[in-house]
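During the reporting period the student researcher (J.K.) took over the structure-prediction task from the postdoctoral fellow and processed the backlog of single-chain submissions. One of the processed entries is reproduced below for the supervisory committee.
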Amino acid sequence: MQRLLVVSMLLFITPLAVHANVTVGGLFNNNMVLQRGMKVPVWGKAAPGEEVTVAFLEQKKTTKADDKGNWHVKLDELKAGGPFELTITGKNTLTFKNVLVGEVWVCSGQSNMQWTLSQTVKSADDANLPMLRLNGGSWQECTPETALKFSATGYHFGRELQKALGVPVGLINRSVGGTSARSWVSKSAVESAPAMKPFLDELFPAKKGGAIGGLYESFIRPLIPFGMRGVIWYQGESDASRPEEYTHLFKTLIQSWRADWGQGEFPFLFAHLGAIGGAVKDPSQVGWGPIREAQSAALDLPATAVAAFHDSDADLHPRRKELVGARLALAARRVAYGEKIVYSGPQFEAMKADGDKAILTFQHVGGGLVAKGDAVKGFAIAGADGKFVWADARIENDKVIAWSKDVPAPVFVRYAFASNPQCNLYNREGLPALPFRTDGKKK
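J.K. obtained the following structure tokens:
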């Protein structure tokens, strides 16, 4: 009797498996944006051996599902435009409407990326932007209603980018508040990175793995290999007490995402942490200086850029997300699209001592160095004893000259190296100089 029951159940189940409906990856739905200018992957599930055809514009790509039911095709390079329809046909047909082709970016990190527009502004009346699409789980057109529920940093980035490029822009937000970069990088990447070996015992206590890679597996791996241009990243607060680890962990994250996506060294743009706490009075206080320095270490990698943001309102969650969004968009226009624009604030290049003066040179000076206010603020210097004092400073021929009567022979210099630095060095394009110190550990 039991044998007959098992046979009957198999007879009932097997036809369902044989005639299973074709399905597609979760990022494919109405209102989506497909990446222009590259071969676009489309993938899903079907019955083993089932023939699947993907049709878009004048293209038709046909394949067969493998023995596990997985299928995958790549559309030829697409030009920006839309709206269009995309159909996927197997034993059933899926039709996706209002599809655009343009630029796709992934937005990720912790709470400052997760914070919605509604948490930073009272109104989004001007957010009727049909060429901007938002994905916080499913694709939606950008409207005053949908924008308020989306990442404020992502929204402002996408808005500026769409305006500058004149093509559709799609944003995929995958961010979770209060999370460490440890959760956003795969366990295997951490274990195999030589630079991470000194940190493995802490990262993997008793070989249990802790929270390593959990969010990567839940939120990032399911996106791969969706065609996209690059990533914007706003995270680091949860790692502020581990700057040495973060120096290597963040690089490992970027390199591993690129390796897993298989799209080469796509642009990875990140925001510095903003200001927090009261004004710093002691020049030896570093606060969030080391974690910003650890973030900046990723600039050693190709196709990276940072949006400095220490001139924000002093808050764990700065409300001026339009500022960081706009600065990330500038970085994208240069790094991803090759526009000849100034996209970074002045970045420390070298220091030379000349008697009692420290002479500092910078990259990314743009139209020239300027101080917002009467005098240059934010510099501290020290002699060989490492005791820092606030320095007087002036701009001369796009260099900064710093000195103090208390330091007759300067050896070390710091600038804006604190949680809430009181500083005012910019380039003429209005971008703030990046915090730095010359007395830190070598990267």
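The committee noted the following: The domain at 103-335 is CATH 3.40.50.1110 (Rossmann fold).
J.K. will present the remaining backlog at the next meeting.
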